[in-house]
């Protein structure tokens, strides 16, 4: 079992809708959780980080963490074509460990 | 500089050649990380420095890989006797905090192609 698992997609969402990206992790000792956005040919860019159970909102983005279920998600409200990218979930047990990413396409 | 700077942006090496990849972290950033990203995959951890000390090199795939950060600023990742499986994007990231769980800021990477 991979340490961090994501559905590779592609995930297609109409413009203006909510995009929901999911991630599960295997190490129950994980304490810190990050979402990075990566455009094709570019480096990962930090979108959100969350350390505590519950929701954390920043603009159109909401990160949700459920440590009991070992599950972290990212919601993008009012999706825009510029949100089309690969979204990487990253988790800190001992070192920052990335999932393979979910490719998101926003359809105009 | 404003961000993490990596050079060269692209590198083509013939199998067996040695390569050196450079990373200039954000000024004052204590922590520096190297990651390897294969096509269609997430970044894979290689090694971690806090200032000049290499605290974790558990991700280096073989003894052909070597990293250093002698003055606690610029870092170099060296790959000796390159193999085709070394072809990937090598990402450098830095963080202002010495805490290992702080958010990372990535450079644009060096795309290495071994022919």
Describe this structure in words.
- The complex is a heterodimer of chains A (108) and B (115).
- Chain A is built from no helices and eleven strands.
- With 108 residues, chain A is mostly beta strands.
- In chain A, strands 2, 4, 5, 9, 10 and 11 form a six-stranded mixed β-sheet that branches. Chain A has a five-stranded antiparallel β-sheet with strand order 1-3-8-7-6, with no helix packed on it.
- In chain A, a hairpin with a 2-residue loop joins strand 6 and strand 7.
- The radius of gyration of chain A is 13 Å and the shape is globular.
- By secondary structure, chain B is an all-beta fold.
- In chain B, 0% of the residues lie in helices and 48% in strands.
- Chain B has no helices and eleven strands.
- In chain B, a hairpin with a 2-residue loop joins strand 5 and strand 6.
- Chain B is globular.
- The N and C termini of chain B lie far apart (33 Å).
- The mean pLDDT of chain B is 94.
- The interface between A and B is medium-sized, with 22 and 22 residues.
Please supply descriptive tags for the structure shown above.
heterodimer; A: 108 residues; mainly beta; 6-stranded mixed β-sheet; 5-stranded antiparallel β-sheet; 0% helix; B: 115 residues; 7-stranded mixed β-sheet; 4-stranded antiparallel β-sheet; globular
Query: Rg of chain A to the nearest angstrom?
Result: 13 Å
Kindly name the structural category of chain B. mainly beta
**Strand content range of chain A:** over 45%
Query: What amount of the residues of chain B lies in strands?
Result: over 45%
Treating each run of at least 4 consecutive H or I residues as one helix, how many helices of chain A? 0
Mean pLDDT of chain A: 93
Mean pLDDT of chain B: 94
Low-confidence stretches of chain B: none
Report the major sheet of chain B. Answer: 7 strands, mixed
Task: Give the assembly state of these chains.
Answer: heterodimer
